[in-house]
Amino acid sequence: MPTLTSYQESPSATLPAPYPTQPVAGRPVDSATPVFDWTPIPGAARYQVQIAATEAFETIYYDEQAERGDAISLGSTLPSDAATVYWRVRAETEAGDGSVWSEPAHFAASSAEPEGEEGTVRLDAPPTPIHPETTQEAPVDVSAVPFSWEGVPEASGYRFQVASAEDFDDPIVDLTVDRTTSITLHDVLSAEDRSFYWRVRPLVRAESGSP
Q1: In total, how many domains does the chain have?
Q2: What would the pLDDT profile of 57-95 be if each residue is shown by its tens digit?
Q3: How far apart are CA 18 and CA 5, in angstroms?
Q4: Which residue, among 70, 52, 73, has the nearest Cα to 61 in the 3D structure?
Q5: Do the domain assignments include residue 114?
Q6: Is the pTM here over 0.85, yes or no?
Q7: pLDDT at 6 over 50
Q8: Helix/strand/coil for 28
Q9: Could you report the per-residue pLDDT of 110-137, keeping only the tens digit for each?
């Protein structure tokens, strides 16, 4: 599995986009006020969240400032027949300069009729890591570490982990992301750790009647 070595460098002046982590991967929300979360962005004074009917964000149900971990009331936001819903987030500085929007994440509204069993199933073949490479020994800038992997067509999302030990008993990062095939961690990993291990696995919605 991939391993990387750390060093520290001054952060980039560009405000990057966050990555949605909850709710994602087409999973149904279990509450009318689900918690929304995303990866933190250094230098962000606030975040803007949009919830929409499609990935094109042509019909927007919600467009407000929010904090990481905020619970958003969907009952007063979504139409009663909403099924699959999309959302995205961007970071803003105190001066009002914003990052680009994140890639859209999707979830099933609590009012939607489930198309299959709740939860996800895992594929036997994990995605192939692309960067950092499995044999990479050169140090990376821990203030902004990009990860990428080959996409799995059937995947509705991915579970992504980073740990300081190969057994992953106590991961430093344990996130679920949507259908993206990359993520950048900003100021999450510590330069005090000499090396890290990472892995990713696809999540696939279970179909009705599947074992």
Answers
A1: 2
A2: 999 999 999 999 999 999 889 998 888 999 999 999 998
A3: 24
A4: 52
A5: no
A6: no
A7: no
A8: strand
A9: 655 544 444 555 555 667 888 887 555 5
Residues 152 and 83 in one domain: no
Q: What is the pLDDT of residue 189?
A: 85
Domain with 101 in it? 20-108
Of 108, 129, 149, which residue constitutes the final position of a domain?
A: 108
Interior/surface letters 173-188, b for 16+ CB within 10 angstroms, e for the rest: bebbbbbbbebbbbeb
> 26 and 7, same structural domain?
no
Q: What is the pLDDT of residues 156-201, one digit of tens each?
A: 999 999 998 899 999 999 999 999 999 999 988 887 777 889 999 9
C-alpha dihedral over 121, 123, 124, 129, to 10 degrees? -130
Same domain, 103 and 144: no
Whether 32 maps to a domain, the answer reads yes
Q: Which amino acid is at 61?
A: Y
Shared-domain flag, residues 43 and 93: yes
Residues 71-76: contacts with CB under 8 Å, at least 24 apart: 71/31, 71/33, 71/34, 71/35, 71/36, 72/33, 72/34, 72/36, 73/32, 73/33, 74/29, 74/32, 74/33, 74/34, 74/109, 74/110, 75/32, 75/33
